[in-house]
Amino acid sequence: MKKKFILLYALFFLLVFNCMAWAIPVSITYTADNIVGGWYQNGGSPDSLSKNSNYDTWQIADTEVLDLLPGHEYQLVWQVQNVGDQSDGNPAGFLAQIDLGPELILTSSSWKISNNLNGNTTNFNDSAWGWYNATTFGTNASTDPNIWSPVAGIDAGASWIWDKDNFSSINFQELYIKATFETAPVPEPATMLLFGLGMLGIAGVSRRKLQK
User: 209 CB contacts (<8 Å, ≥6 apart)?
Assistant: First the structure.
């Protein structure tokens, strides 16, 4: 009995410790027409993340994997720039997916954009950013007609997004684009204790069977 108690005690604290130290890998895949100048992570402490190899090639997406804490809200902000003159024939666009494991977050009109190029990148909640909803311009699906061909690695349901004045001579040539999401929480200690009890029970049954 004493050995079982010690085993249960050790198992419980091992599971709780693992949960506390557990980091959730979050995969972010994105591209832009034309340039992703830089992007930033804000969740607890802000980080400036370097642009990847395909930052100026919208036909090829880049992927970054971040180890994030469970049960936390995070914000990702991309700085995206269009190349060329403002005109009807020179639109811009941004396309992305955030893979949380059980949930896939795709670019849509619920994502926020800002044309404030001097905003505080250490605080994306600052009201000076003036965030507003993006406008969609077709999805990444091959059956959805738009000026962009499908980009590999990004879900077909993701939408190309930009400001509503895209495809016009007053289109913004540079925007910040923001996604807000929350990582899944770790299991509560009570849940982990029940799991430990279950494992201990299975071990006990197996031992009795062996003794027979």
Answer: none
Residue 203 φ then ψ, to 5°: -65, -40
Which among 18, 35, 48 has a CA at the least distance from the CA of 192?
18
| Token couple for 165 | 């004045």
Preceding peptide of 52 cis, ω within 30°: no
Give the residue carrying structure tokens 């050995």.
3
User: What confidence tens digit (pLDDT) does each residue in 87-110 have?
Assistant: 778 899 999 999 998 899 999 999
Positive or negative CA dihedral for 60, 65, 66, 69? Answer: positive
Q: Output the pTM of the full model.
A: 0.78
pLDDT tens-digit profile of 175-195?
999 999 999 887 655 444 445
**Of residues 79, 90, 86, 27, the one with CA closest to residue 55:** 79
Contact in structure between 130 and 114 (CB atoms under 8 Å):
yes
